[in-house]
Every structure is written in C-alpha cells, then in structure tokens.
Design a protein that fits this description.
There is one protein chain. Helix content is about 55%, strand content about 15%. It contains 14 helices and nine strands. Helix 12 packs antiparallel against helix 13.
C-alpha cells in the first residue's frame, strides 16, 4: 500500500461517492472534497479523509480525480487561486472523469501543462449501478505514459478501459456514448407504451426482447424502471440534457448529421421543461406516455 499513489477526489455525487469508495476498498489513500457535508461524512465513514477545501485536498497528493456535473464546474474547481492548478504539486496527474465538452478538456490540459501537471480526460459510462459495482466503461484521452500510470486506478473502478486518443478524445467518445444511450432509451420507451396499449404482458415481452437482437445493456439496466415506473435518479435527465447539447454541438462542428439524435435531444429538453429534470433518464417513458394521451 505504501507504493500506491495518494489520491484526492473532488466531487462526491451519485457517481463520485461509490467510485471513491471503491478506491478505498482497493487500498488507496483517498482524500475527498465536495460541497455537501453529509457526503464528506460518508467518505470518512468509508475510510477516506475529508478535506475542508480543494487546496487542502490536492496539496500533497500524486493523483487528483474530479467528477463534477459539467464544464462550468470543472473550470470552477480547476482554475483560480483556490483551484487545483494553483495548489497541486508539479508532476501530479489530474484525471477528470466528468462528462464535459472536448474543448474544455483540451484547454484544461494546455493550462495544466504550464503548471507541470499532467491531465487525462476519462469520462465513464455505466451509471450509478456501474459505479457501485466497479464495472464502468472508461474512455480516456491523453498521453500513453499517463494512461499507463493511471491504469491500476481505472481497474479499481471499471471493466472496459480504453485510451481513445489525445486530449479530448475521451470526451468525444463519451458524447457518442450518450447519443447511443439516449436513442436506445427512447426506443425502449416507445416499445413499452406500444406493448402496454396493445394489452401485452409487459414483463414477459421485455424478457424475451432482452434475449434477442433488441436486447441491450440499456434494456437490461432500465427494465425495472420501466416496469415499476421507478425513476429514482441513477443518471438525471438534467445531465443527459447537458450531454445531448455537447454531442449535437460537437457534431455540428465536424459536419456530422444527427437526425434521430436531434429529435431525442428535443424530447429530453421537453422533459426538463415539464419538471422532470431531476428524474432518471429512463423517464423518457413519461414523454412518450404524454404524447400517447396519458395525463401525468
């Protein structure tokens, strides 16, 4: 354990808390910081150390991992006199596991280089369940040597770990992932409403669909959400709305058409305007139900 890098973890939300705890279980010394005291208490109860500020958390560690909602939050914790870049030691490795724009990751890597800090962008897929079970898919952008150093840390968090290219590449792949997930959830939601209105046993139908070509990780993970109308957030509509903005904007920049993705992005946006932004993204079912005449 003495040879393991000391880690600072910034951001202890739905994903960050179980991920940091998995590092503690793997034997890493983890110091955490977040804005909510109860989440710092949870980290301490799991065997980590709670810090009173970002500066305190990052000052003497080898690796800093960030997991916050979006680009503005990454910039807020990275820059400025109280931020990561001003307080981490030269030679530290900063791994941003948030889902943000590719350009934000590229800019962060450039700014960090001036401080002697190395950066990887390493967003994840798998949701809360994947974070808890340490089976996340981790898509990484950055230098090979930094990826190699971080690989044991990633292996404590996920199962599929791939270096996708230079800085920003991990975020580009994550944007594609979110496009696929949103379209898949939308297709599942439409199928659920179609099946129920047709009088078919929904559980039986989803079981058999899951065993055929229509089966997917999305259907497996979200089947109970659909069956029970349980939309407790594992990944909130608000965050998927942010991600659909990232992928549609990035696609426009490179000249890629996303006709189906653009429609689903609007459906996600409509859920937010109807007050469902805090629900799990499987609540796309609610949008289809409303379009099909349900009063919710």
């Amino acid at each position: 354990m003495s040879n393991r890098p000391k880690i600072a973890w910034i951001g202890l939300g739905i994903m960050g808390s179980p991920m940091s705890e998995n590092l503690i279980k793997a034997g890493y010394d983890v110091t955490g910081y977040t804005l909510e005291q109860e989440k710092l208490d949870r980290l301490a109860a799991a065997g980590g150390t709670a810090a009173a500020s970002i500066a305190e958390a990052v000052r003497d560690v080898d690796v800093i991992i960030t997991m916050v909602p979006a680009s503005p939050q990454v910039e807020a914790i990275a820059y400025g006199p109280d931020g990561i870049l001003e307080n981490a030691r030269s030679g530290a490795l900063l791994i941003d596991m948030s889902s943000i724009t590719p350009q934000t990751s590229v800019d962060l890597a450039a700014a960090a280089q001036d401080k002697g800090i190395r950066v990887l962008d390493a967003p994840v897929s798998g949701g809360e369940a994947g974070a808890i079970e340490a089976v996340l898919s981790i898509m990484v952008g950055g230098e090979q040597a930094d990826f190699d150093q971080a690989k044991p840390i990633f292996e404590a968090l996920g199962r599929t770990i791939v270096l996708c290219g230079p800085h920003g590449s991990g975020q580009t792949v994550k944007a594609a992932n979110q496009l696929i997930v949103a379209v898949n959830i939308q297709a599942c939601a439409e199928a659920v409403v179609f099946l129920e209105k047709s009088g078919v046993d929904l559980k039986a139908a989803l079981d058999v669909l899951g065993g055929g070509l229509a089966g997917s990780t999305v259907l497996t993970r979200k089947k109970d959400n659909f069956l029970n109308r349980d939309f407790k957030p594992g990944f909130r509509i608000d965050l998927h709305h942010k991600d659909m903005g990232i992928v549609t904007d990035a696609a426009r920049t490179v000249g890629a058409a996303l006709p189906v993705g653009a429609v689903v992005a609007q459906l996600v946006a409509s859920l937010r305007t109807q007050g469902d932004g805090g629900l799990d993204h499987s609540a796309l079912l609610r949008a289809v139900e409303r379009l099909s005449g349900a009063q919710l």
